[in-house]
Write a structure and sequence with these properties.
mainly alpha, Endonuclease Iii, domain 2, Endonuclease III, domain 1, 12 helices
Length: 236
């Protein structure tokens, strides 16, 4: 599988490039809460919800004292307010009670497996959220798996799994060193722009030659044709 992952990653990088990454890693608590807010919504709405919470209560200790319904009201733009506010409230109050402060930097020297177990012990925090903390805040070579990553890797034929969590464990056991960020980011882009749930644009897919998906679609939308021609003009 490691060789297959390398092949897929190389094709994605050739097509999309190496995704940029900021020099400063985000705070783990900020990243964890932002990831909770990002579930089942778009980046614009989750960003608004996160900023609303941080602007009103810059310190997480302040937010921890809020009633859950108040948190729900503040983050409502992100959707699933009750579910997300429960997860946020539970995490903030529990970590403060256990550690005396709301800070996850104590995890910085722990093993990946231990960090996953620690973070998923909080109600409402799953493998995807915990693995995002590992990749984006702790700079670990761990590839989070959302619906896009799960769908594309199953279609390509790298895995045959029934859930994102199962895909996560399958690929991270064999993930080549140093590629997690580009692999994760480019797979999400592949899933959003090309390998969509319905009517994927297979004729312009960078991994077409190795993809084993039986339901390939070779009809390209006019919008994507126009965007592709613009991209080609920029390249040449």
């Amino acid at each position: 599988m490691k060789r297959q992952i390398k092949s897929i990653n190389n094709l994605l990088v050739k097509h999309f490039g190496v995704p940029p990454r900021g020099k400063k890693l985000p705070d783990p608590v900020d990243l964890l809460i932002a990831t909770i807010l990002s579930q089942n919504t778009n980046d614009k709405n989750s960003y608004k919800a996160f900023n609303s919470l941080k602007e009103k209560y810059p310190g997480w200790e302040e937010a921890a004292e809020l009633p859950r319904k108040k948190i729900e009201q503040i983050i409502k733009v992100a959707g699933l307010g009750k579910q997300k506010s429960l997860a946020i409230k539970n995490f903030l109050t529990k970590i403060k009670a256990e550690r005396g402060k709301i800070d996850l930097r104590y995890l910085s020297k722990a093993r990946n497996e231990d960090i996953l177990n620690e973070l998923t012990s909080f109600n409402g925090i799953g493998i995807k959220t915990a693995s995002c903390v590992l990749l984006f805040s702790l700079d670990r070579n761990v590839c989070p798996v959302d619906t896009h990553v799960h769908r594309t890797l199953n279609r390509i034929g790298l895995v045959k799994t029934s859930s994102p969590d199962k895909t996560f464990y399958a690929i991270n056991e064999k993930l080549p060193e140093g590629i997690a960020h580009q692999f994760h980011t480019n797979l999400i882009r592949l899933g959003r722009e090309i390998c969509k749930p319905a009517k994927p644009s297979c004729s312009i897919c960078p991994v077409l030659k190795i993809c084993k998906y039986e339901g390939k679609n070779f009809v390209v939308s006019n919008n994507y044709k126009q965007n592709s021609f613009m991209l080609l003009d920029e390249i040449h």
